[in-house]
Amino acid sequence: MGKESTVVTVIRDDRPNMKTGEACLVVINGADLGKRHPLTRLSTVIGRSSKTDIQIDDESISRNHAMIVNRGDRYLLKDLGSTNGTYVNDRPTDEIDLRDGDLVKIGRTIFKFLSGQNIESAYHEEIYRLTTTDGLTQIYNKRFFIENLEREMSRCLRYARDLSLVMFDIDHFKNVNDTFGHLTGDAVLKQLAQRIQTAIRRDDIFARYGGEEFTILTPEVPKEGALHLAEKLRGMVASKPFNFDGVDVPITISLGVADLRDYVHEFHQGELPTDFDALELIRMADKQLYQAKNRGRNRVAG
After folding, report:
1. Which residues contact 262 (CB under 8 A, 6 or more apart)?
2. What is the per-residue pLDDT for 66?
């Protein structure tokens, strides 16, 4: 990991007054996270040009990338012949009627389309969701993970229960971005999260810790069980390439595992502590992750 600083995301509330029922786009991934763009014009153009209605400074976005046409009872999204395409719910589209809750991806920015009679309520619910969820992968974010790690460590220490932590990241992820582009890299991160979710329990807390690094907190699971899970995930990722825009991208991950017993032994001489530092358990798992990388990657250490 080697990163001690915490990145603080500021969710902007630059909101013009909106009438009840007005549709809008809310930024859930990208710059100006949480900003709301009302769709009150007859047409709203999105692109890199300073003359567009919603400007996004991103080289992967065309100058005039896409347009949303307000037809009163519906909102039509049109791609304007962009270089990298416009995606709705991860599917490329030339033209589509938007439905409430649709995710619109333009370049590396993701918008959520909100409509209907409860815009204000839906907007505030979305802002709350953004405080706990990563906009790109739609899994928990670092903030939510840290809060729950502290809560679970407290509970498991109090009742002498098992608790394990798996940390992993994508091997040579920079090469993926350099070779295939950041749009493909983003798609790989999202598909990876979806694949991992199919193999973990509902009680497990799966989060994007930052960049290409992920964490899985497994309450009531001893280290042996967490190592078994980590090996299962490693094989699942390596067995099938990811795909974006018709291109296969082979991916492997390296994983590190630590558990509460390791922590108690390392920092409290085997005695259950009355206070604790949750970040130390993260550092222990991260140290094992780097052991996996030093041993050649695409493997588990613990």
Report:
1. 223, 284
2. 98
